[in-house]
Specification:
The structure is a single chain. By secondary structure, the chain is mainly α. The chain has one domain. It has 10 helices and no strands. The protein is globular. It starts with a helix and ends in an 11-residue tail after the last helix.
Length: 209
């Protein structure tokens, strides 16, 4: 029975992550598939770029909420005999599945976003202190250079160093997760990196195109 609950928790996390807020907002309120416009990414940045702040901010907030809520919901499926370490591992599994759902959403033909906002929500749940420094780095980079991709990549690379060296995290699973985040985000932004290098990356703007 406990195994069934764990599996149910994982499936629930995937379904929560799969809610394609950007796609649904675009189709329901604007009559367009956001994945056919701008960068083609079903995320908050592209939504703001194509549809404006009024559409993008709710998408951003909901995508962040998905990551946080998935981790929070994990506790409803965890057996009472789990140790602290086992709880953390299950939370990480739930978090990873939720992000996977955002990137490959079953409700949108498995074509989703890059998972940055959902990862932020996960960070708020698992790293409630560290995440604020990461956000500060992101904002500083965005204000300075105007590239969301560069800000995301820089903040993600800094993340494991913040977790280990500044906050002295001792949980091996949380340290490993932070390192994986620092690897995962640059990989999902590999096309952005190419555009940054050749000078064709679009700068962030709140004005609709």
């Amino acid at each position: 029975m406990e195994t069934l609950y764990l599996i149910l928790g994982i499936v629930t996390a995937y379904l929560i992550g799969s809610i394609p807020s950007a796609v649904w907002v675009g189709k329901i309120f604007y009559g367009i598939d956001i994945r056919t416009q701008g960068s083609g990414n079903a995320g908050a940045t592209n939504t703001i770029r194509v549809l404006g702040v009024k559409a993008g901010i709710p998408v951003l907030l909901f995508d962040v909420f998905k990551g946080w809520f998935a981790v929070y919901l994990a506790h409803f499926f965890i057996p009472g005999y789990f140790s602290t370490g086992q709880i953390i591992v299950f939370e990480i599994i739930i978090a990873a599945v939720a992000v996977l759902g955002h990137v490959f959403p079953v409700f949108a033909g498995f074509r989703g976003g890059k998972g940055i906002a959902t990862l932020l929500g996960v960070g708020m749940a698992l790293y409630p202190s560290e995440v604020f420094i990461v956000i500060a780095i992101f904002i500083l980079m965005l204000i300075t250079f105007k590239y969301v991709s560069l800000a995301s990549i820089t903040a993600s690379i800094c993340f494991p160093f913040i977790v280990f060296f500044i906050f002295n995290q001792t949980s091996a699973p949380l340290i490993i997760l932070s390192v994986l985040v620092g690897i995962f985000i640059p990989i999902t932004h590999r096309n952005n990196i190419k555009r940054l290098l050749n000078g064709t990356e679009s700068k962030f703007s709140t004005k609709k195109k």
